[in-house]
Amino acid sequence: MEKIKIIMDVDTGSDDAIALVMAMLEEKFDCLGICAVNGNVEVKLTTDNSLRVVECCDKQGVVPVFKGCDLPIASTLMPWTAQSLRPFPTREGTREGKTVVHGDHLPLPEPTIKEEKDSAVVWLINTLLESDGDIILVPVGPLTNVAVAMRADPRIIPKIKRIVYMGGGDRVNNTSAASEFNVWADPEALEIVLQSGVDFTMVPLDATHEAYMNLADAAEIREIGTKPAKLVADLIESRIRGYSVNDKDSADNALAPIHDALAVCSIIHPECLVDVVDVICHCDISRGFAYGETIIDWRHRVKFDEPANIHFAKHADRNVFTAWVKEVLKKDKERRGL
Ligand code: RIB
Ligand code: CA
Questions:
Q1: How does residue 304 score in pLDDT terms, banded at 50, 70 and 90?
Q2: What is the pLDDT of residue 77?
Q3: 206 lines ligand 1 (CB under 6 A)
């Protein structure tokens, strides 16, 4: 069976790490590489964390890691926004020591492998240009690498089979009242990609918060007993602790969304996304109160005066998602002969 070629673009972070485990262990995927970007933590750390996950999954020498952009395209050029980027009070926890949802380092040994020499943008451009147009990009952090690559060499745009993106929000936001973190960190990058015409699926907070995981899920996954399963269980539990600091629903019910992994799941199990609609979406880059808002045009017009540019997932099916995560980890255990 032909494998599905994907490239992960991540700001590893705790849910990115779970997404990477899934991307590398799901046997239907051929994960061609991992591009790290500035986001949850600085790009030196997102790169280091990605390398740690590659080794945790015993994919060193198989899945390369590339260091990408260390600053957003434009959002930090204004001195006052540069200051406000860190630390940011989000539902992704605060940066008050032990209660963060991400932290600087994942709970894994320091990596013994290094990132590749090419920058992520250079490798993305070369890989896409040399491809048959059969690669799915899976960005689950700020879209800086992807947008810079598109601007640097627009020939890659028709070579991208589709983009499956974790980011944005309509009814649900986390970093400001109007914006979701991945967009907020680099709004101009999202708008560049939204205007590119690439087939774009947005997996927003509206969906990811419905596909949460809880302590029972973590316990069941820990039972599997492999290194990747232990990492996933540890990260679910740490995310529940971090989310409970700021989010009442998480605190009351001991649960947390695993945003990025849902985007990966949707490539294998599209049914994990519910009520996916084709809409026009643009990103507010006007630097006002709604800077970084994903503005969905819900007007019920007979026809769009511009074509819909995204597939927007309004909801998610938590059962499909959690079952898939457990199945991938159990199959990995069998492959390891444990
Ligand atoms: O808003 C959620 C997104 O922001 C996720 O990708 C998480 O990793 C953080 O980057
Ligand atoms: Ca992320």
A1: low
A2: 82
A3: no
* CATH code of the domain covering residue 233: 3.90.245.10
Q: How far is the CA of 260 from the centre of ligand 1 (A)?
A: 7
Report the chain's terminal Cα–Cα distance, integer Å.
25
Tell me which of 138, 182, 235 to substitute to probe ligand 1's pocket, judged by most ligand atoms within 8 Å of the beta carbon.
182
The rounded Å distance from CA 159 to ligand 2 centre is 24
pLDDT of residue 301: 67
The pLDDT of 251-269, averaged and rounded, is 97
Structure confidence at residue 99 (pLDDT): 54
Q: Is the CB of 234 under 6 A from ligand 1?
A: no
Enumerate residues 6+ apart whose C-beta is below 8 A from 32. 5, 6, 7, 63, 127, 135
pLDDT value, residue 78 = 74
Distance 13 CA to ligand 2 centre (A): 6
Domain that holds residue 236: 4-333
Residue at 338 is within a domain: no
Cβ 161 vs Cβ 199: under 8 Å: yes
